[in-house]
Design goal:
This is Inositol-1-monophosphatase. By secondary structure, this protein is an alpha+beta fold. It has helices at residues 3-26, 44-60, 90-95, 166-179, 189-197, 211-223, 237-240, 251-262, and strands at 34-37, 40-42, 65-68, 80-88, 101-108, 111-119, 124-129, 134-136, 139-141, 153-156, 182-184, 203-207, 227-229, 242-246. The chain has two domains: 3-141, Fructose-1,6-Bisphosphatase, subunit A, domain 1 (Fructose-1,6-Bisphosphatase, Chain A, domain 1, 2-Layer Sandwich); 149-262, D-Maltodextrin-Binding Protein, domain 2 (3-Layer(aba) Sandwich). The longest helix has 24 residues, at 3-26. The protein is globular, with a radius of gyration of 18 Å. 44% of the residues are buried.
């Protein structure tokens, strides 16, 4: 398979979805919000964007399966699987906060081979493919060179359900805020990850994420020279639903802080 060619076609699919979302943002009807669970919202924009992405990717690679956030389609593929979040940052979108993204990843036999994240409001297309580097709007990107927590800017997410770990998480936040340049919560995990990839953040950590939240962004971080692991430092962040993505230079310091508060 020509991964670069596939990636370029996925970029076009992501851009089409992003253009649709941008148009809908101008006319968004908040009365059409639905709730999937506590604080977990979805809109007709998410669903329609996902349908558009799925339809285009099905033509691109008919034999591939799909894992999608909005369940417009979820089918198994023998060798290839698309993992899609059509609108990562739905809460931001609904409230008019201009940070949200289209996230598309292609996995080949459980390994990422293509990742595309389109941050819609800034018009920034981040992408990577197997055998290549990581890119932002055709320019190669690499992770930050900062090598201490004290010189780092970090990103995270706040739990909006399953609050049993909230006390530990708040204690971790308190430590991070004392020991780094700052702690940011943007509201889009895909955007947090690509900002690690291009050096805007030194690290991002969060738990209770789903595969579609990080499948593309985590791969882009790795192709940009960064590291991705779970809260125990292991490689299985898919099943644990815990993720720490870093520039590779501050991983140990952050894992040590996580261990202090999560006991792992």
């Amino acid at each position: 398979m020509n991964y670069e060619l596939i990636c370029n076609k996925v970029i076009a699919v992501a851009r089409l979805a992003g253009n649709f979302i941008r148009r809908e943002a101008m006319l968004f009807d908040a009365s059409r919000i639905e709730y999937k669970g506590l604080n977990d919202m979805v809109s007709y924009v998410d669903k329609t964007a996902e349908q558009k992405v799925v339809a285009n990717l099905s033509k691109l690679l008919p034999e591939a399966g799909f894992i999608t956030e909005e369940n417009t389609v979820n089918i198994s593929g023998e060798n290839y699987t698309w993992i899609i979040d059509p609108l990562d940052g739905t809460t931001n979108f609904i409230h008019g906060i201009p940070t949200y993204a289209v996230s598309i990843a292609l996995y080949e036999e459980d390994k990422p081979v293509v990742g595309v994240v389109y941050e819609i409001n800034r018009g920034e297309m981040f992408y990577a493919y197997k055998g290549g580097a990581a890119y932002l709007n055709k320019k190669e990107i690499v992770v930050s060179q900062r090598d201490t927590l004290a010189s780092s800017l970090l990103a995270t997410g706040f739990p909006y359900y399953q609050f049993d770990k909230q006390p530990q998480y708040m204690n971790l936040f308190a430590q991070m805020m004392r020991e780094c340049h700052g702690l940011r919560r943007i509201g889009s995990a895909a955007t947090d990850l690509i900002y690690v990839a291009c050096g805007r953040f030194e690290a991002f950590f969060e738990y209770n994420l789903q595969q579609w939240d990080f499948a593309a962004g985590a791969f882009i971080v790795q192709q940009a020279g960064g590291e991705v692991c779970n809260f125990s430092g292991g490689s299985d962040y898919f099943n644990t639903r815990e993720i720490l993505a870093t520039n590779g230079r501050v991983t140990k310091e952050i894992l040590k802080a996580i261990e202090t508060h999560f006991g792992q």
